[in-house]
Every structure is written in C-alpha cells, then in structure tokens.
Design brief:
This protein has 260 residues and is of the alpha+beta class. It has six helices and seven strands; from the N terminus they run ααβαββαββααββ. Strand 6 and strand 7 form a beta hairpin. Helix 1 runs antiparallel to helix 2, helix 3 runs parallel beside helix 4 and helix 4 runs antiparallel to helix 6. The protein is globular. The structure holds adenosine-5'-diphosphate (ADP). Adenosine-5'-diphosphate (ADP) binds next to helix 4 and helix 6.
C-alpha cells in the first residue's frame, strides 16, 4: 500500500508542478509565435530566402514546444472520471481501425475479446490508455511484429493481489507486443512520470504513468510482463461490474417463452 501511495503522491506533486510550468511556458510561447508570425508577414515582400528559412525553423520549433506543453497540461489536469459499467469488448472493437492506422504496416493487429463481464471505468480515459499502450507497442517493434489486444476476466486472489489492488474480480485489457522488451532497470522506472528511453520530441515519459494513474483511480491496477528481445504485455485491471455484459438490444430475444 505504501509504495502505491508514494507513487500516487509523487504523481500528484509532479502533476501540479508540471501544470504550473506548462501553463506559464505556453503563455511565453504564444508571445514568441505571435512575434515570429508578425516578422514573417512584414518580410513577405522582401526576398531574403535565408532569413525566411530561419524564421520557419523557429516557428516550427515553437509550435512543437507548444504541442508538448499541451500534452503536459492534459497530463496535469486530472480529467474528471465518469466511471460506469462498460462493455469493454465493444470499446476495443471500436478502436481497432484507429490502432491499425496508428501502427506501421509491418505490424499485425490481433484482437481477442474474451471478457464476458462489464468493467467499471471511464470510457474516454480507457480509450486513451489503450491507445497509449498501442503506441508504446508500435515503438517497441520498429522492424514489425504482432500487436495483440485481448480482454478477459480474472480473479485476483489474496495471494496474487499485491499492495495496490484488492482481491476480487477484474476485467483485464492486455496489450501485448513482440517487440524489444524491457530490462529490469527500465521496468523498475516505467511508471515514473517523465521516465523515457525515447529521443527528445518522441517520448514524454507520461504514457505509462497516465495509464497507471487511470487504473488506480478506477480501483484497479496495471501489471507488466516483459522479456528483453521477446516482447511485453501490459495488463490494465479494472473492477468488474456486477453481472454479465448486457447484450445489445437487438441481440435480446423478443420474448421469453416459458412454456406455460
Ligand atoms: P514514453 O512512451 O513517452 O517514453 P511511457 O511512460 O509510455 O513514456 O514509457 C516509458 C518507457 O517505458 C519507454 O520510453 C520505454 O523505454 C518503456 N516501454 C513502454 N512500453 C514499452 C513496450 N511495450 N516495450 C518496450 N518498452 C516499453
């Protein structure tokens, strides 16, 4: 419990700090971008190709920096959760196309929808969590491979339930890749905000900490299994709703013949 608590306090503090800095930084960038745009417009009649190129470079960088501050702001702003019983299979199905378009052509995307129960979670947050994991999987397979998204129901018995999750029934979404895998050192730090092994501009190091924060806020957790050179499986555990996933209206029999 303590480690989980420390982790969430750390994220809270980092979130506040990040939000403050990102906000101020964004205001400054707005000034820089505005001024650069102005100079560019005033020069439109002049024909100094070099200076135009420098201006474009400066503008592109400033816009990139602004993009980063927006991502940081989104991270620090705790989106309010609206958890309700969710058909996780339907949610994963609806994301399939987007995920296929997000990964490279050398990556096959498989879906295995085995969860027969609803989860209690916020749909938007769960979507962005799954997308985050899919992007990580893509980045781990630069030469291609297989990305599998599967859903299931699992029982965490008291032995398996670690410090951050109670024993009970969970709906599990697993995102598995056949990528580079993670060393023990990386695994140790993956949930730390801003921990990234990716080049500047490519990784913010916020993906997995957001996924973890979301799972914890939902009353669940995240488990990672990884092997260097073989691949990684990230599982989001979400509390199972009581009872089975409600079939869609058109699947329901019109009437129950009781044979009376
Ligand atoms: P980011 O993706 O921006 O780096 P994350 O918090 O999502 O931030 O991930 C942190 C680090 O964890 C990554 O930089 C990478 O080293 C490692 N990682 C995450 N997912 C995977 C994966 N599926 N396979 C291998 N390494 C991963």
């Amino acid at each position: 419990v303590e480690a989980a608590l420390r982790q969430s306090q750390k994220m809270e503090a980092v979130g506040q700090l990040t939000g403050g800095i990102a906000h101020d930084f964004n205001n400054m960038l707005t000034g820089v971008i505005g001024a650069l745009d102005m100079v560019k417009r005033k020069r439109a009649s002049g024909r100094d190709a070099d200076t135009d190129r420098y201006l474009d470079t400066a503008l592109t960088s400033a816009h990139r920096a602004a993009g980063l501050t927006h991502r940081l702001l989104a991270f620090s702003r705790r989106q309010s959760l609206d958890p309700h019983a969710l058909d996780i299979n339907a949610l994963v199905s609806s994301l399939q196309d987007l995920i296929r378009r997000t990964v490279t052509e050398q990556i096959s995307v498989d879906v295995d929808l085995g969860a027969a129960e609803a989860a209690i979670a916020d749909a938007n947050q769960l979507e962005s969590a799954i997308l985050n994991l899919a992007i990580n999987a893509r980045d781990a397979m630069p030469e291609g491979g297989r990305l599998t998204i599967s859903t299931s129901v699992a029982e965490l018995d008291p032995d398996m339930a670690a410090e951050d999750a109670r024993p009970g029934r969970y709906v599990v979404v697993a995102v598995t890749d056949t990528g580079v895998g993670m060393s023990a050192e990386v695994l140790d730090k993956v949930f730390d905000p801003f921990f990234t092994t990716k080049p500047i501009g490519q990784g913010t190091g916020l993906g997995l900490s957001m996924v973890y924060g979301f799972a914890r806020q939902s009353g669940g957790s995240v488990r990672i299994q990884s092997r260097v050179g073989e691949g990684t499986s990230v599982k989001i555990y979400l509390p199972a709703a009581d009872g089975a996933v409600e079939p869609k209206a058109e699947d329901q029999p019109a009437d129950f013949a009781r044979g009376e």
